[in-house]
Every structure is written in C-alpha cells, then in structure tokens.
Write a structure and sequence with these properties.
mainly beta; 3-stranded mixed β-sheet
C-alpha cells in the first residue's frame, strides 16, 4: 500500500507504521529527524511512503491512528493498494 504523508522541508522525511488486525488497518505517521536552523520554514512536503501489509486490505477500513477516523482515498494524492 502506498500512502501520502506530510513532513517539513528540513526534516529527514515521513515514516508510516502499520498495525493490522482482522478488522482494520491502522496507519501512524511520524517524522524522522527534526531539522533546525535559520533556513527552516513551516513548509510541508508530500511524500509517498510504501507500507508493507501481511494481508490484502480487502474490505478492512484503513484508519488514522491519531484520529481514529478512516483515511480517505484520494487517488494519486491519497492511498492506493
């Protein structure tokens, strides 16, 4: 599964962890490394992150770990499997 995650322009990129159950797929995005310095701004970058699943998504909802809500499918700008 490929997801799009946001991260800052001065950090080392996005990381997405996955927790699979029989009833759902839960995604948790974090940022690796925290950039510092005077050239860092609050700009965000979109990054495609591939998450390996043990089983196909099928009819399981894909949930955001931080909100508990379903992750919306947005074609090339969202998730795909």
């Amino acid at each position: 599964m490929t997801v799009v995650a946001l991260h800052g322009i001065c950090d080392d990129g996005a990381k997405v962890d996955v927790l699979e159950t029989r009833g759902s797929v839960v995604l948790s995005a974090t940022v690796e490394g925290h950039g510092e310095g005077s050239s860092c701004t609050k700009q965000a970058k979109m990054q495609q992150v591939t998450v390996k699943l043990a089983h196909p998504v099928n009819d399981r909802p894909v949930l955001d770990a931080h909100t508990g809500r379903p992750v919306s499918y947005k074609g090339l700008q969202g998730i795909s499997s």
